[in-house]
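Worked Example 4.2. Consider the chain below.
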Amino acid sequence: MVDAIFGKRRNAVMSTTVAAAVLWVGLVPGLATTRAEGPSAGQTVAAPSGGETLNSMLWLAGQWRSEEGGQLSEETWSVPHGGSMVGMWRLLVDGTPKVIELLSLTVEGDAVVLRLRHFDGRLVAREEKGAPITLKRVQAGAKMAVFESPGASGPLTISYRVEGNDLVGTVKHAGGEPETYRMRRVSLGVTGSIAK
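Applying the procedure from the previous section yields the following structure tokens:
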């Protein structure tokens, strides 16, 4: 099921795929302790270690977009508040909504947890009721985070990192190659063209 969901997302945004995908094995050369204000540039850390807040994920907040070949891929994240962040990703093909993904980041005990659900353009859910895809943050750094889940059909890894003004996301299924997409930061508010 997860392969089908993310496979569709991969195919839909293949035109925005980055040539050099990030490989997860060996991504982090050394681990340290997460600090609330976040690690220094280039440093990665094991995450989290207690007293965690979502302030370390503030870099993800905002609107990110890619438009190419009649496709609009857009992801928007709220700022952290009350121990949570809310995100939305949508894919439009020739102006028609094809996939909507709702996401949340929460602090649960000493863990940062990413949950997500997929819907079609009419908000018909793909995942079963009460069964969102759930991943735990296992690595954090300056403008990067890696989330993992054992998954029903094997491990699933999702990462986010910021490179300049771009948000680079990578999804890796058990035994599969990483699928990478890139979106540019845009200002909040009305952006892009308005359908007539």
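The helical segments are 2-12. Residues 2-186 form a domain with the Lipocalin fold (CATH 2.40.128.20). Compare this with Example 4.1 before moving on.
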